Amino acid sequence: MAAHRTKVPRPLARQLFVEAGHRCAIPTCRATPLEIAHIAPWHRVRRHEFHNLIVLCPNCHTRFDRGEIDRQAMLRYKELLRLPDPNRVAPEDSAPKAGLIRAYRRFQREVDVWARATGHLDTAITLSSQGFPPGNVRECRRAASLARLAADKLGELGDEGTTGAVEAVFEWHRRWTGGVFDLDPAVLIRSREEHEEWQEERFLAFARLHEEICAALDLDPGELDFFEAEPAEEELPVVALGTRGFWGTGD
Hints:
The protein is mostly helical. It is 54% helix and 3% strand.
């Protein structure tokens, strides 16, 4: 199959070498000599495109082919090459798929914040005897606006399938928040079965979006984490609160 592979055009190769500063693109390596690698493999894409090519030394290229460096990591290395650097000159990428994962993660984060804000409002309404809690409303409105911006950016970078899947996730959350704002009993009061069906609809919307993102990146769904890994929790100092010992200090 490799015998039928066309050569990377010289102008495109030059752009790739310039992007990486004529060094291996992995920041902790930066070795030479250099080779051009396909992030999504040639046998799958059968084309040379700037966003799917990266410059590696022979050692890192071999480690990538063996799976010691996975494709998700390689996409991240490609993305890092796009960050501003006064010592690096990179061409404009007409198909900036390297930034698609970052936009995807941002959308997930903003939607998660929105969901938590709506959940807080839902709980506040259920428990409040003081009427509608305006502070929670402002939090919800801001979170929804930030999620809308993130959805628009992700749709801009993705294809038609990605845009449709993004809108399905966004619309699910908009309906939930709208129902809470309208004090809709069908939203505020659900049986266990209704709640499980409702959550399954949300999961399926996220699953479809994940599949569309992976398709746009020429990845199998299992090659990209469904959600970004949570950072390790920072060890927090113990702060003495109160002196009378009504509550224990343990977890």
